[in-house]
Amino acid sequence: MQTRGTLEEATEFLARHPDIRHIQIMLTDNNGVLRGKSIRPSELTAVYARGRPLPSSIAALTLNGEDADETGLLWEVGDMDCLVFPVAGTLVRCPWLNTPTAQVLVMLDAELGLPAAMADPRLATARVVNKLIADGFHPVMAAELEFYLMDGASVHERPPRPVIPRGKHPHVYSIEEVEALEGFFDDLYRCCDVQGLPAETAISEFGPGQLEITLTHRADCMRALDEAIMYRRLVKGVAAKHGLLACFMAKPFANYSGSGMHLHLSLTDKHGDNVFAADDPAGTPLLRHVIAGMAKTAADGMAMFAPHANSYRRFTTNSYAPVAPTWGVNNRTVSLRVPTGPASTRHIEHRIAGADANAYLTAATVLAGAHHGLKYHLDPGAPTTGDGYHTSAPPLPRQWLAAIEQCGHSPFMREYFSDRFIEIYTAVKRTEYKRFMSEVTAQDYDWYLQMV
Questions:
Q1: Which position among 211, 254, 395, 435 has the lowest Cβ density within 10 Å, counted as fewest Cβ atoms?
Q2: Dist. CA 140–CA 219, nearest whole Å
Q3: Is the dihedral of CA 261, 192, 44, 23 positive or negative?
Q4: pLDDT tens digits along 185-207
Q5: How far is CA 175 from each of CA 18, 181, 407, 414, rounded to the nearest angstrom?
Q6: Phi and psi for 416 in degrees, rounded to 5?
């Protein structure tokens, strides 16, 4: 598991890159937004040796950077400083920037970072991972993130203009569309190589300008998630360099497919063997326990999988976004898909979360469900065959506030994330909900100005 970086890591990096002028230290908040500071190279070793103070309010911010008063991390504690430390293996160059710049992910220290540490999504995920490891299971994970490429000049247009390289209409899975974006992809893969990110297959998806690039699986689950966080930032940076906007909204266009975050999960034993491996595509009893646990707890975790108002626009019938906690073999209409392939590669693809979700919190919820299923030897029932949108399974929450409240009152979520984490997270989300709903939008005027 990825842990705190060492002083040697910092000094060796500076020796190899004497031209670096700025270093960005970045904490991932509960919305997946990277927040932190830009420091000079002369300050870096001190960050590794003694940490760096950040205010407790950094863990109490809404998506738009406003304070969420009900978290208890503001006035009650005097917005006190909390220490962050670098995450090992994440100190890398930012090759898309003109000025020689580096970045490093940081995490709050479990003790020195209090009280904000109670809201650190990376620490929360590590606690869940440790529960699995303590029971002899090591999670292997990979992330797939879909996104839209848009014309950067249209960012203030409603809606913005997607990039359609081959004319007016998108061409799903078109190699020509990928080739037309040759400059962008070449730069993106080059930057991934510089940062050590395992970017692999690129495809054009169902929407205009919608793309997906897969990251290969990692035996160190936390490393896979760190890479997902770094990758999202890299894609945005490379896109901006090319005059484009990389959009990870769950549903940026009403008439086109939404963007998902698909997490691929398997578990290995102490010998490194895949405990899901079986010639039968439906896998082993352990795989079925994991599926059952993830399905049973999915509704409680919906506020993690779909954290924003826009997230819920993605969940519609026949959209490739699942609407119920179903499972199946080689079936893209279900929430929990078991892909085909050699027995040694048997794994589960979790398809509920949107691309707008925090990768750490999505994974923590998935892994908590897996642990729950293993702990109680749950049975998922028969796999779904055919159209998974026509099922008797209870639907997932489809309303933002309902999902927030279900998460907040869930004994399962409180057990795995802690009472305090869930209190802070739901306080932030309730604040966002109230502020979002208080806005009078263009649609309000279109619908009601003259008609009521």
A1: 254
A2: 5
A3: negative
A4: 999 999 999 999 999 988 777 77
A5: 40, 10, 42, 46
A6: -90, -30
Radius of gyration of the chain (CA): 22
Cβ(217)–Cβ(140) below 8 Å = yes
Q: What is the pLDDT of residue 32?
A: 97
User: What number of helices (H) and strands (E) belong to the chain?
Assistant: 13, 14
Domains of the chain (ranges; CATH) run 129-417 (3.30.590.10)
Confirm if 101 and 87 have CB atoms less than 8 A apart. no
In three-state secondary structure terms, 436 is helix
pTM of the model: 0.96
User: Which pLDDT tens digit goes with each residue over 55-107?
Assistant: 999 999 999 999 999 999 999 999 999 999 999 999 999 999 999 999 999 99
Q: What is the pLDDT of residues 317-354, one digit of tens each?
A: 888 899 999 999 999 999 999 999 999 999 999 999 99
Q: How far does Cα 256 stand from its chain's mean position?
A: 21
Entry field: residues in the chain: 452
